[in-house]
Automatic annotation (TrEMBL):
InterPro entries xref list: IMPase, Inositol_monoP_metal-BS, Inositol_monophosphatase-like, Inositol_monophosphatase_CS, Inositol_monophosphatase_SuhB
Name of the protein: Inositol-1-monophosphatase
Domain of life: Bacteria
Organism: Aliikangiella marina
Keywords: Hydrolase, Magnesium, Metal-binding, Transcription, Transcription antitermination, Transcription regulation
Keyword Ion transport attributed: no
Length: 256
């Protein structure tokens, strides 16, 4: 799996260099669906990632946010070329490239790369998580009183706003503060690195979370849906946190 990590990092760095170079010359911004934008840079960056990986692994399959499913293989690469496209378009320097490699449905390798800050978060299943080559662990914050949490607003799903606000109303008064920075992949990477104690959001897709969820788990954290079911991919929600904050988040959410 180390070889897969090397290729994933190579692809993320290539795409990162490209996106930075192109960031002042975005040629087109399209709406894919309500509030979901894509630029020519997202599409080209995804192609760079796919080409880089295919060069080494010609028979692997892909699931990319912008190009969908390609190929059929036990190995599948799950790619978000720019996680935080709205930030990218508005020149808010907070977005990342997210690449995961799955084998027989299990995430084996995860890379989240922030080329603006040159911050690289990596994980290999069973081998821990790293930040710029150094081992990372989730925070040790106990409970919620001193916990810094992050979330994403349901800006594409107004129909779940009430459900979202209900949970916000349970967590927010209990924690120290809540962030909404605009990149789920970075939110998860920051939980892995102990910068945040926990994260929760509704309506994310596999490309948003596959790499970041592995980072959190390999850094000693927990990931589930908001009901506590570890198969968060089968639901419309995700919670990721250090084990103590995780327990406290679930408790707060489930109280009447
Ligand atoms: C989005 C970001 C954002 C989250 C959205 C995602 P995109 O990804 O991760 O933080 O709230 O739900 O879709 O569309 O910029 O790749
Ligand atoms: Ca998008
Ligand atoms: Ca995304
Ligand atoms: Ca994206």
């Amino acid at each position: 799996m180390q070889a897969f990590l090397t290729i994933a990092v190579r692809a993320a760095r290539k795409a990162g260099d490209f996106i930075i170079r192109e960031s002042d010359k975005i040629r087109s911004v399209q709406s894919k669906s309500q509030h979901d934008y894509v630029t020519n840079v997202d599409k080209a960056a995804e192609q760079i990632i796919i080409d880089t990986i295919s060069h080494s692994y010609a028979d692997h399959a892909f699931l990319g946010e912008e190009s969908g499913r390609q190929g059929d293989s036990e190995y599948q690469w799950v790619i978000d070329p720019i996680d935080g496209t709205t930030n990218f378009i508005r020149k808010v320097p907070h977005w990342a490239i997210s690449i995961a490699c799955k084998y027989q449905g299990k995430t084996e390798v995860g890379v989240v790369y922030d080329p603006v800050r040159e911050e690289l978060f990596t994980a290999v299943r069973g081998r821990g998580a790293q930040f710029n080559g150094k081992r990372i662990r989730v925070s040790n914050t106990n409970g919620l009183e001193h916990a810094l949490l992050a979330t994403g607003f349901p800006f594409r799903n107004p129909e779940i706003l009430d459900k979202y606000l209900n949970i916000f109303g349970k967590l927010f008064p209990e924690c120290s503060d809540m962030r909404r920075a605009g990149s789920a992949a970075l939110d998860l990477a920051y939980v892995a690195a102990g910068r945040l104690d926990g994260f929760w959001e509704f309506g994310l897709s596999e490309w948003d979370t596959a790499a970041g969820a592995l980072l959190v788990k390999e850094a000693g954290g927990m990931v589930s849906d908001i009901a506590g079911n570890p198969n968060y991919q089968d639901s419309d929600s995700i919670i990721a946190a250090n084990p103590k904050a995780f327990k406290a988040m679930l408790k707060a959410i489930n109280q009447k």
